[in-house]
Design a protein that fits this description.
about 100 residues; alpha+beta; two-stranded antiparallel ribbon; about 20% helix
Length: about 100
């Protein structure tokens, strides 16, 4: 996820896994700033999708986690260095590193 505010006040917004039209219409630049802040939390979005199930059209309501400042696929070892979950830079397992702190 990222948002870029250009010099001509044009905003480029990207959010992986979220519908493009939802990001374009409803998400604001301030939403990105709030999500990355210290008190930023998880926001959930609600969107609709038309899908087929056994050759019948259905309308589904999809609820997804939107913007979040929590990265559940990385591990921060000392407050500065981050590693991908499952990465091991020595002979210890990642669980030994996590529980040693």
């Amino acid at each position: 996820m990222y948002a870029v505010l250009l010099d001509n006040n044009k905003i480029t917004k990207k959010a992986k896994g979220l519908p493009r039209d939802f990001v374009k219409k409803f998400m604001k630049f301030d939403d990105y700033k709030y999500a990355l802040g210290a008190r930023g939390g998880v926001s959930f979005i609600r969107s609709m999708a038309i899908r087929t199930n056994h050759h019948k059209l259905e309308t589904d309501v999809i609820i997804k986690r939107g913007l979040s400042n929590f990265d559940d696929k990385r591990y921060c070892e000392n407050g500065v260095d981050t590693f991908a979950l499952g990465y091991c830079h020595d002979d210890r397992s990642i669980l030994d590193i996590i529980f040693a702190n």
